[in-house]
Amino acid sequence: MTSFSFEMTQTAIIRTKLLTLSGALPFLGALALPFFPLAPFDAAHIASTYAALIIAFLSGTQWGLFLVVSGTSPVNLMIQSNLVTLAAWAGLLLLPATGTLVLDALCFAYLLFLDYRLFKSGILPLWYFSLRRLVTLIVVGALLALTGILSHSNPSL
């Protein structure tokens, strides 16, 4: 059995926090677009495609983590992460813009729930879970706010 440690240097932790927080910026930028339009950029398209990309990235990190901690993980992250990624992709293909944004928000919330389970089982450290919780709140808030704005301004979305 392989032993796993989530130990990182303080520099690596700071870099992780900066990169993770900066990953929320495109969502905030998409949220600003309805108020400050820039042709040819479409807020819903930017937010939903970027969300699918980040959902796939987060799911990939959970897949990789599962390879190391499968014996102690409270959930099968390979299956769970694949389902979340496929749901986000299906949303892009099948749903209207606002439906896709809501589905993406649900995907982010579910990925945070999986991280919570990993944190509670002692696999993820507090600093990482706290960071994920903060960024997920920002992202989900931006996605849902954008959904509301777009629904109000164009009910056909």
Structural commentary:
This protein is mainly alpha-helical and 157 residues long. The chain has one domain (10-31, 43-153). The chain contains six helices and no strands. α3 (43-69) packs antiparallel against α4 (77-94). The mean pLDDT is 93.
Spans of at least 5 consecutive residues whose pLDDT stays below 50 are none
**SS summary, helix count:** 6
> Which whole number gives the mean pLDDT?
93
Distance linking N and C termini:
51 Å
Q: Please count the beta strands (DSSP E, at least 2 residues each).
A: 0
Domains, number: 1
Outline the secondary-structure elements.
Layout: H1 10-22, H2 25-32, H3 43-69, H4 77-94, H5 97-120, H6 126-153
How do you describe this structure in short?
The protein is an all-alpha fold and 157 residues long.
Which descriptors would you attach to this protein?
mainly alpha; 75% helix; 6 helices; 157 residues; 0% strand
